[in-house]
Amino acid sequence: EAGHHIGDGFSCQANLMERATVWDAMADAYTSSAGTLAERLLAALDAAETEGGDIRGRQSAALLVVTGKPTGKSWEDRIFDLRVEDAPEPLNELRRLYRIRQAYAADSEADHFDEAGDAEAAKAARLRALEMAPDNVELRFWAGMALCRAGDVREGALLVAEAIRAERRWDEVINRLVRAQQMTAEQAEMLRALLVAAEAK
C-alpha cells in the first residue's frame, strides 16, 4: 500500500506498507502528540509501526530535524541527524540515539557556560546530560570534572573514578587537561588523591 496525508504544515508519506491506514495513523499521532518536533515525529513513526508498518518488515529508521534559520554551519543547523541502517528493532535504536543526542546537546550547552565562567550552570547542564545517558562513560567523566570545578570535588572525584574504572584512558585525559591549561597541576594532584580514595572504597 502507498499513500499520503496532508495536514496543516506537515505531510506524511508511506510506501510498501502492510495496510492503507498507516499514513492516517501517522498523522493522528503527530497532531495529537505533545513535545518537540522530534518527539512528534518519533510518535508518528511508532504509530506507523503499530498500524502494520512496512510489509517487508523492520530494518531501518531515520530522523532529521534542522533549524528554521540556516546559519551556513551544517553541524549547528542539523539539530538531529540520526540514522539506523540495519537493526532488528530500528525504532528502539533510533530512540536510544535520540536520547544520546539530547544528552550531548546538554553537554555542549555546558561548554558554553564554561566559556562564560559560570561553573554552577555548567555543572547543572553536565549532570542533566548524564541523567539522560547514565551509561555514557564520557558524560560521566565530564560531569565529574564539572562538579570538581564547581567546588564539589569529592562528589566529582567519585564520578571521574567511575569513568576511569570503565575506561582507563580517561586517566590520561587528566594529564592532557593540565598540559592544555584546562586545570592546574595542583587541581590534578588533589583530584588524583581523591581518586585513590574512591578506588579504595
Structural overview:
The chain has helices at 22-32, 37-50, 74-77, 90-115, 119-132, 137-149, 153-166, 170-179, 185-200, and strands at residues 3-7, 10-14, 61-66, 78-84. It is mainly alpha-helical and 201 residues long. The strands form two sheets. A two-stranded antiparallel sheet has the order 1-2. A two-stranded antiparallel sheet has the order 3-4. β1 (3-7) and β2 form a beta hairpin.
The SSE order reads EEHHEHEHHHHHH
Number of strands: 4
Radius of gyration: 22 Å
By DSSP (H or I, 4+ residues per run), the number of helices equals 9
Main beta sheet, described? 2 strands, antiparallel
Q: Roughly what percent helix?
A: 55-70%
Features:
201 residues; mainly alpha; two-stranded antiparallel sheet; two-stranded antiparallel ribbon; 4 strands
Quick structural overview:
The protein has 201 residues and is mainly alpha-helical. It has helices at 22-32, 37-50, 74-77, 90-115, 119-132, 137-149, 153-166, 170-179, 185-200, and strands at residues 3-7, 10-14, 61-66, 78-84.
